[in-house]
Write a structure and sequence with these properties.
The complex is a heterodimer. Chain A is mainly alpha-helical. Chain A is built from 9 helices and 3 strands; from the N terminus they run H-E-H-H-E-E-H-H-H-H-H-H. Chain A has a single domain (32-241), classed as Arp2/3 complex 21 kDa subunit ARPC3 (Orthogonal Bundle), CATH 1.10.1760.20. Chain A has helices spanning 3-20, 37-64, 68-84, 100-107, 109-127, 135-159, 164-190, 197-234, 236-241; strands at 24-25, 86-87, 94-96. In chain A, helix 3 packs across helix 5 (109-127), helix 5 (109-127) packs antiparallel against helix 6 and helix 6 (135-159) runs antiparallel to helix 7. Classes of the chains: A mainly alpha, B mainly alpha. At the A-B interface, helix 1, strand 1, helix 2, helix 3 and helix 5 of A face helix 2, helix 5, strand 1, helix 6 and helix 8 of B. Chain B: It comes from Caproiciproducens faecalis. Chain B: InterPro entries: ABC/ECF_trnsptr_transmembrane, Cobalt_transport_CbiQ, ECF_CbiQ. Chain B: It is found in: Cell membrane.
């Protein structure tokens, strides 16, 4: 066997391992024990202003109408359930939606920050995804950064009169991608490369998770659009209840 | 175990575990304390000791079937393996590396320090997960929330947590029925149909959940809900035997610390 052939076999083997170990591709939750204490605390502290804003907005909603409590709780449970369901796929691998885009579009980014931290806590406790010490970092990427970007894009597309379904696709797709990038950067800051530092390390983490996260982001975008179409067709009154007027959607 | 919500298995074990009788606050402090120790100590010895002791507590004392315990441990394996790979493999010029191969315009290589860091982080992650499992596999969610109440988390958040926890099971059961109904009508015959069925199910689930929310509020109000839901908490006494296990862990930790410190 020549060296070239050996290298080829080696890289094919590596590729198959990478593709093979992803039968259960959840959104990228940073695992328990992966971050040093200072990063756990720093990301947690960074979340506080957003969480306080979310808490105040939820509190206001409940002062308006106490009945909103069950509605909000249902929204939280809905986000948990969609993120725990397997997306149908041909390859038999099982991936899951993040639900960040859909959640932000339906319930607004401020409510999603509080619901998101509760859902992430439940995912850590009930599904062993993510963790208690990494809750701050995961909340920042999945319940704050992703939803904020999704919501921003959704509103922007509405303002610019871009086809709304395309706007929804972009919001969910980019929200998902952004979450994945933020998580990679969080990991890179915690584990910088010996050569090249944080930037090189970020490239590595982005590259390693790309095979699972890129298709997932596209699928998430498509599914979110399909869900919104179905909601628009069958549930206009319920959407109004969520203060979400999709009247302009044709 | 539960066909309807096969995803949510740790919840079933928390009701079955023999550690369920342990004092809740003690268990949470024990588990979180071990977790923080593992991360703060950042040493192979402490990680290994904690991993084995936590497995002994959950499987040996708590009587969680060993096979199920390892199956649950495999859940985070995909992330740990990929994350580990990203830490182990470096790119750049790659001088003084153990293994090096060309990759497009640059080199991929593994150095001794990156390999040991990768293995170390992987062990630390599994150890931290085992410490978390001590709590999650033995404490039902209601009791964990009661601990949050003791550390003064706002009542509104606690109430949301209680309700979300209950609704998760209702929604996943509803979804399982939707899935069965759709499956029996060939709703999952090919990919395009599957995606359409799947998104239809989720949209329908949202509509149903919003409708149920109203019904549940009325049901709560009919039972005297006035803006403050109270949940019953069982009293679990702290016994000498429970403290003994904690003491044993501390003794082993102290031993491990001494060894690590002596070696330098």
């Amino acid at each position: 066997m020549t060296t070239k052939q050996k290298k080829l076999i080696g890289s094919v083997a590596a590729l198959s391992v990478v593709l093979g170990v992803t039968p259960n591709a959840y959104a990228m939750h940073i695992m328990e024990g992966y971050l040093a204490p200072q990063y756990c605390i720093a990301w947690g502290v960074l979340c506080i202003p957003f969480l306080v804003t979310g808490y105040l907005s939820i509190n206001k909603k409940l002062k308006e109408n106490r009945k909103n409590i069950t509605l909000l709780a249902m929204a939280g449970a809905f986000i948990f359930v969609i993120s725990s369901l397997k997306i149908p796929s041909v390859t038999g691998s099982c991936s899951h939606m993040t639900g960040t885009g859909l959640g932000a579009i339906l319930f607004g980014p401020s409510a999603v920050s509080i619901l998101g931290i509760i859902v992430l806590l439940f995912q850590a406790i009930l599904l062993a995804h993510g963790g208690l010490t990494t809750l701050g970092a995961n909340t920042f990427s999945m319940a704050i950064a992703g939803p904020l970007l999704s919501y921003g894009i959704f509103r922007l597309c509405k303002k610019l009169n871009i086809n709304q379904y395309f706007g929804i696709f972009l919001a969910a797709f980019l929200g998902d991608l952004f979450t994945y990038c933020v998580t990679s950067v969080q990991l890179a800051i915690a584990y910088p490369s010996a050569q090249g530092g944080i930037m090189a390390s970020a490239v590595k983490f982005l590259g390693v998770f790309a095979p699972t996260q890129l298709p997932l982001a596209v699928l998430e975008g498509i599914l979110t659009v399909l869900i919104m179409i179905a909601l628009k067709t069958y549930a206009d009154p319920e959407l109004k209840m969520l203060k979400l007027d999709l009247g302009e959607i044709k | 175990m539960h066909r309807n919500h096969e995803q949510i298995t740790t919840d079933c074990y928390s009701y079955l575990s023999a550690l369920g009788e342990w004092n809740t606050v003690y268990k949470v402090v024990f588990s979180v304390g071990a977790l923080v120790t593992v991360i703060a100590a950042d040493s192979v010895g402490i990680s290994a000791v904690t991993l084995f002791f936590m497995m002994f507590l959950s499987v040996g004392v708590g009587k969680i079937p060993g096979r199920d315990y390892f199956r649950l441990m495999k859940v985070p394996a995909a992330f740990i393996l990929l994350g580990g790979a990203a830490i182990v493999v470096q790119f750049g010029s790659g001088d003084g590396s153990l293994f090096r191969t060309g990759f497009f315009w640059t080199n991929l290589f593994i150095t001794e320090s990156s390999l040991s860091l990768g293995l170390h982080v992987t062990l630390k992650a599994f150890s931290a997960v085992s410490a978390l499992f001590l709590m999650t596999l033995s404490t039902p969610m209601g009791e964990i929330i009661s601990v949050f109440r003791k550390i003064r988390v706002p009542v509104l958040i606690l109430e949301l947590m209680h309700l979300i926890y209950r609704y998760i099971f209702i929604l996943s059961e509803t979804n399982q029925r939707q899935k069965d109904a759709a499956g029996s009508r060939l709703g999952y015959c090919d990919l395009t149909t599957s995606l359409r069925t799947f998104s239809g199910e989720l949209a329908n689930l949202l509509i149903m959940s919003m409708k149920k929310a109203e019904t549940y509020y009325d049901a709560m109000e009919a039972r005297g809900y006035e803006g403050n839901a109270l949940f019953w908490e069982e009293k679990r006494p702290l016994t000498a035997k429970q403290l003994l296990y904690g003491g044993l862990y501390l003794a082993i930790l102290a031993g491990a610390f001494c060894l690590v410190w002596r070696r330098g």
